[in-house]
Amino acid sequence: MIDLLQELLLVVDDFDRALTVEAGESAANYRKGIELIHAKLNDLLTRNGVRPIQALGEDFDPNLHQAVIHEVSPGHREGEVIGELRRGYLRGDRLLRPAMVKVAKA
Question: What is the pTM of this model?
Fold first, then answer.
């Protein structure tokens, strides 16, 4: 657990550095830095067995998804996940957080 916390602190350090960027610096460079931090955090999660739930295009599954919107959508199947408002995550077979989704209805 201590190792995980130490690795998370390295990500926090990266965010701290990103927040010190001067207003005149390029938005593209700032975005690139944020993307690198995002990749680093995702790598840390992956190494600790955490993986995102694939929701878009899947059938609604109450064990993995939390439906927050139901929307008539003629181009989709009844019960198909057509939007993801917040990504869900698993660690192994254990649900850490359900995906908040928009589900098609007939």
Answer: 0.80
The whole-angstrom separation of Cα 71 and Cα 91 is: 30
What residue numbers bound the domain in which 21 lies? 2-48
pLDDT by position in tens, the chain (length 106): 778 889 899 899 988 888 887 766 677 888 888 899 999 999 999 999 999 999 999 999 999 999 999 999 999 999 999 999 999 999 999 999 999 999 999 7
The enclosing domain of 69 has a CATH number of 2.30.22.10
d(CA 101, CA 60): 9
- Same domain (yes/no): 40, 66: no
What is the number of structural domains in the chain? 2
